[in-house]
Write a structure and sequence with these properties.
The chain is mainly α and 157 residues long. It contains five helices and no strands. Helix 1 packs antiparallel against helix 3 and helix 4 packs antiparallel against helix 5. 27% of the residues are buried.
């Protein structure tokens, strides 16, 4: 099912143009930008999950005198840190499907901010830099291909 990038109406198979706005179908050439952006977001989300899980396991195994007082806040931080990768994976999926441009563009900053906070506030690690860079590049790829996305009607969002 194809949609017109100009008016977002469904295109009929037997027409060479959009019956709503008149744009010809031959002008509708999808690019790989949303696919690249989606793959970058999925990669950033998966890396974020894996590193957070590994660090959480390592930190909870460390010997401390008041381990319970230390582990509970650390687990809360780990759960909060999962928000960024979750948004990254969700946005990557939507980008590969070319759906919900608005949702993707508004959730990518959460991934970037999570990596930024992780890098400067919690610990300086290589994975934070990778996630930050993947988030920035995916934002660039996806934001430059806005016309290829199908958005839900306002009342369905």
């Amino acid at each position: 099912m194809e949609y017109c990038p100009q008016c977002r109406k469904e295109l009929r198979d037997n027409h060479n143009f959009c019956t709503n706005c008149g744009k010809t179908v031959s002008q509708l050439q999808p690019t790989v930008k949303p696919i690249i952006g989606g793959i970058l977001l999925l990669s950033a989300g998966i890396i974020g999950y894996i590193i957070t899980i590994i660090v959480t396991i390592q930190e909870t195994r460390s010997p401390l005198p008041n381990k319970l007082e230390y582990v509970i806040p650390f687990m809360i931080i780990a759960i909060i840190k999962m928000v960024g990768p979750t948004f990254g994976i969700m946005s990557g999926y939507y980008s590969l499907k070319r759906k919900n441009f608005r949702s993707i563009i508004t959730t990518i900053p959460f991934l970037i901010i999570t990596a930024f906070i992780d890098y400067f506030a919690i610990r300086i690690t290589f994975d934070s830099i990778i996630i930050f860079i993947l988030g920035i590049f995916s934002f660039i790829f996806i934001s430059t291909s806005k016309n290829e996305f199908v958005n839900l009607p306002e009342n369905d969002v």
